[in-house]
Amino acid sequence: VHQFVHIGGMSMIGGMARIDRDVPPYMLVEGNPARVRSLNLVGLKRSGMLKSDFQLIKKAFRLLYRSEFLFKDALEELENLGDTEELKHLRRFLLLSQMPGRRGLIPGKGKKTVIDE
Q1: UDP N-acetylglucosamine O-acyltransferase C-terminal domain: from which residue to which, for each copy (predicted)?
Q2: Within 7-84, where are the H helices?
Q3: Considering only CA atoms, which of 6, 40, 38 is closest in space to residue 23?
Q4: Which domains does the chain possess?
């Protein structure tokens, strides 16, 4: 794990993953270089999160890592998803990761994602 990197709550980091950027909350990250592979489904289920909140986090994940939205557009879409504490936490983390002096966000796997920009 690189110094100054932030790891969001309820994230899971795979063994031997090289973490050189911020890891958003609720994500499963693995590989070298590290990539967001999916949501941390096991951790989210064990957390006792409401099913409705879990569904919103899944939608947020798809917006960020499986859509063609630009990062700023994906953030706007996240605003439209709802106002749960979990979504607020995710949005706040994403915004803070873009501040000067921060290293940015770990990208997703495969095709280009909004985080890659």
Answers
A1: 22-105
A2: 41-46, 51-65, 71-81
A3: 6
A4: 12-98 (1.20.1180.10)
pLDDT tens track for 47-57: 999 999 999 99
Distance, in Å, from the CA atom of 19 to the CA atom of 23, rounded to the nearest integer, reads 8
CA distances from 67 to 11, 17, 70, 77, 113 (A): 21, 24, 9, 11, 7
Lowest mean pLDDT among 16-25, 66-75, 81-90: 66-75
Distance separating alpha carbons of residues 24 and 6, to the nearest angstrom:
8
pTM value is: 0.84
Token pair 């609720």 in the structure block, residue: 26
Report how far apart the first and last C-alpha atoms of the chain are (Å, whole number).
22
